[in-house]
Amino acid sequence: MNTMKKQLLFPALLAGLSLHAVAQQKAPAQAPPAKPVSQSAVSMSPDTTIVSTHEVTIKGQRIPYKSTAGTQPVWDESGKVLAGIFYTYYERTDVKDKAGRPLVISFNGGPGTPSVWMQIAYTGPRLLNIDDEGYPVQPYGIHENSQSILDVADILYIDPANTGFSRLASKDVPREKFFGVNADIRYLAEWINTFVSRHNRWASPKYLIGESYGTTRASGLALELQNSQWMYLNGVILVSPTELGINRNGPVDAALRLPYYAATAWYHKALAADLQQKDLTAFLPEVEDFTIKELLPAISQGGFLDDQQRRNIAAKMARYSGLSEQVILQYNLDVPTNYFWKELLRDKGFTVGRLDSRYRGMDRELAGDSPDYNAELTSWLHAFTPAINIYLREELGVKTDLKYMMFGPVHPWDRGNDNTGENLRQAMAQNPYLHVMIQSGYYDGACDYFNAKYSMWQLDPGGRLKDRLSWKGYRSGHMMYLRKDDLATGNDDIRNFIRASLPKAGQPAKY
Q: What pLDDT sits at residue 424?
């Protein structure tokens, strides 16, 4: 382990990290086992830091860095603490010019999950133990991430309220201030302003990276930071993006799924031999072209589509999806994802995963319309939960009895008035420096790659921003970085994106 001497800041507050809600007294020799302390009674100081120093080798270069793990408060208008938000902040220590050093601010999604996923599996300096395709291995733990982006940027990982070690200050805190599309964006923008001020990062080029629901968060924050905090970004990276409030109901929603079905069927060798012989990226453009030019107009005609044309469309869909023509006709050309995950490998006794359809599951019964469980998520929790607890508690020195919440109590979540795609477009229009990159896994069935392309197209319907919009595809699922090859490629794509979006010294932000 590469932890060096630890240095404690705010020592009076640090005690809050190890406080139990109930003081523990020495038990008599014959005392019965103590009852576990209720999580609702355990607290952590809302304003704490623990600093440690480390090194990591990235691309063959030894990089010294400082890690700050801690909490920073959220206050209300009167200055009352509403929550303590946990974060981990990595700074390269051999860089003198902080003004020119990019800062990447990272979120995951859910809503209701902490930053653990990208922190210890994608961009951070430490990497959880998994095999080359992302499956759990024992012994659990972590090791150096030789692909981390810490060589080119400092990184801040934020756990939103009620995720990871972040908590509301009390049960009386109004939940509507935190748990909704726009509430989440507002309080995090204020929090980021405070963090940037405390750590003297106002001069730094700034980037947001969000995964899954974190892309909704990052897209909304791009405009909120500009309009309410007067903080302007150089880039936003959307990893496995959501729909971003962009309407795609009806025929569009039904048609856009097919390229994902085709990618998954190709992976599981469920297609005709002539299609299987093609490389994935050579095969998918054919499916995408059919989807836009034939399938979407056909579904739009509904019950008035000519019977022969309907059968022709169903036959092509069957050829590309690995499903039977009969099933497709029974669903009126609109096969739901749940049924696809259950049906594709039914004859082989398996289901396929939702977030990563490379993963296979086994249900109690072969019959049914949807899988019993998400095969990939169970696998991921198997690997991630021990690793993040080992890392934070043993390597970074976070001492607390709080449970690290992989999925926290944030529901009900107010999804109303989600205009985050339009927010992002406005932010780009107002800020000529701002670039956007989308990263998608071909086998992601929750935030599928072709829907991500559609979102990019609809972000800029006039085509005037497309020189600052880009999309990258990877041969894995929702967390494409779990596959070793994509971990390297994805981080390289982020490196290149950061370098390309840094303006030359003195270059004005103007059209």
A: 98
Q: How far apart are CA 216 and CA 160, in angstroms?
A: 13
Alpha-carbon gap, residue 342 to 345, rounded angstroms: 7
CB 287 within 8 A of CB 262: yes
- DSSP letter, residue 120: T
Predicted model pTM? 0.91
User: Measuring CA to CA, which residue among 396, 342, 330, 389 is closest to residue 369?
Assistant: 342
pLDDT tens digits along 128-174? 999 999 999 999 999 999 999 999 999 999 999 999 999 999 999 99
Average pLDDT score over residue span 239-253: 96
Rounded CA Rg of the chain: 24
| Runs of H (alpha helix) within 149-201 | 181-198
Residue 63 reports pLDDT greater than 60: yes
Tokens of 132: 């080359």
CB atoms inside a 10 Å sphere around CB 34: 9
Determine which helix (DSSP H) or strand (DSSP E) holds 430, and give its type and residue range.
helix 420-430
Q: Which residues contact 380 (CB under 8 A, 6 or more apart)?
A: 117, 134, 479, 482
Residue 394 DSSP label:
I
Domains of the chain: residue spans and CATH: 39-246+382-501 (3.40.50.1820), 251-376 (no CATH)
Angle subtended at Cα 72 by Cα 498 and Cα 110, rounded to the nearest 5 degrees: 65
Q: Which is it for the CA torsion 299, 339, 247, 494, positive or negative?
A: negative
Helix (H, G, I), strand (E, B) or coil at 261: helix
The per-residue b/e assignment along 408-417, b for 16 or more CB within 10 angstroms, e otherwise, is bebeebeeee
What number of other Cβ atoms are within 10 A of residue 26's Cβ?
6
Closest CA to 112 of 221, 225, 217: 217
What are 90-111's pLDDT values in tens digits? Answer: 999 999 888 999 999 999 999 9
> Are the C-beta atoms of 180 and 413 separated by less than 8 Å?
yes
The percent of residues above 70 in pLDDT, for the chain, comes to 92
User: What is the structure's pLDDT at 28?
Assistant: 36
Which phi and psi angles does 160 have, rounded to 5°? -60, 170
Q: Are the beta carbons of 436 and 236 closer than 8 angstroms? A: yes
The per-residue pLDDT for range 187-199, each reduced to its tens digit, is 999 999 999 999 9
Q: How many CB atoms lie within 10 A of CB 16?
A: 18
